[in-house]
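WARN no homologs supplied; continuing
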Amino acid sequence: MTIAVSPQALPALVLNADYRPLSYYPLSLWSWQDAIKAVFLDRVNIIAEYDQEVSSPSFSMKLPSVVCLKHYIKPSRNPAFTRFNVFLRDRFQCQYCGSRDELTFDHVIPRCRGGETTWDNVVAACSPCNLKKGSKLPKQAGMIPHQRPFQPTVQDLHNNGRLFPPNFLHESWIDYLYWDSELEP
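OK structure emitted
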């Protein structure tokens, strides 16, 4: 198959069977190849298409821009504890100074003092703040996190993900995404 434009420029938005995105951040997107494969495997319905086509000697079709799963995937109730999800929970900003640069994660109660690597003890911190706090307790360092660490729900992460829309939103996706109206094309 050949394609006239860059394949990376034509991802398909993936919706669950209830017509909501599987994820907002990162936005649930498939490459055009994965979207077409899912169409042929009868796993999705095509909701919207790009003007561009792919073709082979015996076949041609428009590329899907929005696909919807045929079977509902129940979202996980408890998001995985990952560095990315900690940053998303904390809105990609240091919980001590508010910086968005050089993010790391900090154990509020340091590991050397018995602190664990859990939702309730880890916050996003910029590298300078993390180094400044070191192995001290927050009060000793004079550095209290802006937000007490907590275990987020999937909905918390979805809501925070909506604060960071992707650089590219195709017009066919807008009806299925819920960001501020000022972001719509």
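Residues 180-185 have pLDDT under 50 and may be disordered.
OK
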